[in-house]
Design a protein that fits this description.
The chain is an alpha/beta fold. It has one domain: TIM Barrel (Alpha-Beta Barrel), CATH 3.20.20. 43% of the residues lie in helices and 13% in strands. It contains twelve helices and twelve strands. An eight-stranded parallel barrel has the order 4-5-6-7-8-9-10-11, surrounded by seven helices. It has a two-stranded antiparallel ribbon with strand order 1-12. The longest helix has 32 residues, at 291-322. The radius of gyration is 19 Å and the shape is globular. The two termini are 37 Å apart. The protein binds flavin mononucleotide. InterPro entries: Aldolase_TIM, Alpha-hydoxy_acid_DH_FMN, FMN-dep_DH, FMN_HAD. The active site is at 236 (proton acceptor). It comes from Alkaliphilus oremlandii (strain OhILAs).
């Protein structure tokens, strides 16, 4: 299956909510939440994408020839590329009922597994929004990272236990969903968490815990203090707060503060292998991608997800050759031009 075919098929299925634009940059869909856009003016999503375009790559091919290694090790597992599918919840509502959360997760987890990477799964107001994706993780021998909303502590801890029982290698929590009043209106309040709350949650499990939705140096230091395995530098794809900086803008200072002491993931507007290269150069260990993975899952199921992953993986490889890098550790800050 060609990637162009994946995009065309997706367009037919999701066109009411997502136009599958040539550049997935948040302009056409701005303000559409529910839907696929960024909140309010859409500026947080738009800026995420725009600021990545502003980073340029330094070309240098005067280096000995040797094999290019794009692999990364996390939670004791080796992945082919430093790229992961971000959690996308309530796909029926946000994209199209052509897939429900179960079928969607099957496409994401199956395709990621075949391409040698891993996908994060979502959570929501109904138990099934967490349980069905988790069932897919179990059916794939634990190949998936459940992402839990910042519910009350007891519920988070119970959901982490379920993740352990189903063989997940790690869990994540989208702490930046703390302000989602829609969930409270539906009778399931979420809320902010103190360092003490997070310590209690993190120490309830042996699984590595990733905190998703950190946008400041101070926030990263607090996550480290709480014992997190890693953070996702993320503004939830611009869906939780209007007028944030772009994730690529805040990444370098966060990396300066905590790199090497915890894993740093980043997401928001990353689309291509060149974008992944830029993220790693500016301090990320790995990148999460949201909307393009959703389009790939609608357009081609697990195969679409695999095709997209391999496409951006090859782009990363090509970029590494052109910038004189043999492995991810070679992708240092001096490889980009700001
Ligand atoms: C429709 C939609 C639903 C999402 N649902 C969730 C979710 O349930 N949990 C979560 O942690 N993040 C969720 N996100 C945010 C993504 O995980 C990710 O942070 C964001 O999409 C990254 O930006 P990108 O789409 O520009 O790559 C959602 C994003 C979209 C577009």
């Amino acid at each position: 299956m060609e990637y162009s075919e994946v995009l065309n098929r997706a367009r037919e299925l999701v066109h009411e909510k997502c136009k599958v634009c040539k550049e997935c940059n948040g302009v056409v869909c701005k303000g559409q939440v529910p839907g696929v856009g960024g909140k309010g003016s859409g500026s947080s999503f738009i800026r995420n994408w725009q600021k990545i375009q502003d980073v340029k790559i330094n070309l240098d091919t005067i280096i000995e020839e040797s094999p290019i290694d794009t692999s990364i090790e996390l939670f004791g597992q080796k992945f082919t590329y430093p790229v992961f599918a971000a959690p996308i919840g309530a796909v029926g509502l946000n994209y199209s009922p052509a897939l429900d959360d179960f079928e969607y997760t099957k496409a994401i987890i199956g395709g990621c597994k075949e391409a040698g990477v891993i996908g994060f799964t979502g959570d929501g107001v109904k138990d099934e929004f967490y349980d069905l994706p988790l069932q897919v993780v179990k059916e794939n021998n634990g190949h998936g990272i459940p992402t839990i909303k910042p519910w009350k502590k007891e519920e988070i801890i119970a959901k982490i236990k379920k993740a352990e029982e189903n063989g997940a290698p790690a869990v994540a929590m989208d702490i930046d969903a703390a302000g989602l009043v829609t969930l409270a209106l539906l009778g399931k309040p979420v809320g902010t968490k103190s360092i003490e709350d997070l310590k209690e949650i993190i120490s309830s499990t042996k699984l590595p815990v990733i905190l998703k939705g950190v946008m400041t140096v101070e926030g990263a230091k607090k996550a480290l203090k709480a014992g997190a395995y890693g953070i996702v530098v993320s503004n939830h794809g611009g869906r939780v707060l209007d007028h944030t900086p772009a994730t690529i803008e805040v990444l370098p200072a966060i990396a300066d503060a905590v790199k090497g002491r915890m894993k740093i993931f980043v997401d928001g507007g990353f689309r291509t292998g060149l974008d992944i290269f830029k993220a790693i150069a500016l301090g990320a260990d790995a990148v999460l991608i949201g909307r393009p993975y959703a389009v790939a899952a609608y357009g081609g199921g697990a195969e679409g997800v695999k095709v997209y992953t391999e496409k951006i993986g090859n782009e990363l490889k090509e970029t590494m050759i052109m910038a004189g890098c043999h492995n991810l550790a070679d992708i240092k800050r001096d490889r980009v031009f700001l």
